[in-house]
Amino acid sequence: MTARYAPHLSPNRKRIGHLDIPGGGKVVVDGDYAYVGHMAPPHGTSIIDISDPANPKVVSTIDLDDGYSHTHKARVVGDLLYTNIEQYDRHTLRRGDTLAADRKRLVGALGHEPTDAELVADIGFDVNTIAKMDAARKRGYADGGFRIFDISDKTKPKLITHERTFGFGVHRFDVDENYAYMSTEMEGYIGNILVIYDVKDPSKPKEVSRWHMPGQHLAGGEKPTWKGYKNRLHHALRVGDEMWASVWHAGFRVIDVSDIANPKTIAEHDYHPPFPEPTHTILPLPDLIDGRRIAVCVDEEHDHTAGALHGFMWVFDVTDFNNIQALSAFDVSEMDSPWSRAPGRFGAHQFREKMDSTLVYLTWFAGGLRVVDVADPYRPAEVAHFIPEPVNAEPSPQPNDVDVCDNALIYLLDRIAALDILQTPIHSLLKD
């Protein structure tokens, strides 16, 4: 029997609250409430009272009607809650679209209609998964998109609208008082693109523009130079009149939205190959450092191949959009977590999607929370960390998202289970 592991905190960090909830994809803190989008149905979105951070309490949940979707992302603007709607287990189920071709190919090779066992041996899925693929293909999927709720009463969220998009639906997104910036599949395109909606009237979102990478618009005669949908928009975050867009295995782009009806690419940088993990999030720092503009970027860890690099954090000089340069990187050694070789992922995932200092709040699968100071962009320095213990008999913790509120509390969300609330003197972590 393995001895119980106590959560490991650096000296300047204290866990003050913990809540056992289904695993989540995103946590957003707004005032006395935290909003969590859950990974798996039937769990949709939880609204949590955090006025007493030592005793967080779920005050309402928005559950899903079936197991075909998940709403694992959430954002709040005033009394409006936005959630995505995306097909659950989408990559596996999309593979089912080619099962007819697989069966036809095997008929030619075998001389007879393949049995399920022969199909399984050929494509590498088990019989139950093949049955799910077939069922999903026959059923179709038309719910993907986003929803807007009235949360003026946090205990009784009220649906205002369900805006449907296409295909898988919406993955991640950004939103402000006037516009919603959705990463979604749309008819005629391959992979997610950016669709911008006017949401000044939340009951009637109105599409105002789209942005995509050359090669994505199949209906417009474009042809991708990549295989499948590996190059696609993961999501884009607005900073002033710019959108900072991670585009998976194509690196990142900066998009000018000063004319919201005509988004235009003004910068691009791709470091794939040789780096194997896809670009997840990119944001610039709020202030220049020694007269230069600096951006932080993170790649998402997936199933690891021995010998390959784990996902890690980058620091870029983006002063000149025509000459973007990598300055440094931050990584966590497998020696720095007792869970690095346990089942589950070990590597970077995401950082807090707001930059208000040189501190980066970085979630690391099986490695916890790492707080990294990039005041010296050539030498990122970890100034604090927190590694939670696994919960519910899971083999490793899988921190997925983080938010920080003004009273120096940090909210760390695990993708399998649990929300941790941490306290730290944030300003003392900043370099003089």
Q: How many DSSP-defined strands?
A: 30
Question: SS-based structural class?
Answer: mainly beta
Termini, distance in Å? Answer: 47 Å
Supply the number of helical segments: 5
Biggest sheet architecture:
5 strands, antiparallel
Mean pLDDT: 93
Order of strands across the biggest sheet?
A: 1-27-26-25-24
Give the strand content: 35-45%
* Portion in helices: under 10%
User: What's the overall geometry?
Assistant: globular
Topology:
Blueprint (H helix, E strand, L loop, with lengths): L7 E2 L4 E9 L1 E7 L2 E6 L6 E5 L7 E6 L6 E2 L3 E4 L2 E8 L2 H6 L3 H12 L5 H8 L3 H13 L5 E6 L7 E7 L5 E6 L3 E6 L8 E6 L7 E6 L19 E9 L2 E7 L3 E5 L7 E6 L9 E6 L9 E6 L13 E5 L7 E6 L16 E5 L7 E7 L2 E6 L7 E7 L11 E6 L4 E6 L2 E7 L2 H4 L3
Antiparallel strand pairs: 1-27, 2-30, 3-4, 4-5, 5-6, 7-9, 8-9, 9-10, 10-11, 12-13, 13-14, 14-15, 16-17, 17-18, 18-19, 20-21, 21-22, 22-23, 24-25, 25-26, 26-27, 28-29, 29-30
What labels describe this entry?
5 helices; 10% helix; mainly beta; five-stranded antiparallel beta sheet; 30 strands; 432 residues
Structure description:
By secondary structure, the protein is mainly β. It is built from five helices and 30 strands. Helix content is 10%, strand content 42%. The model is unreliable at 1-5 (pLDDT under 50).
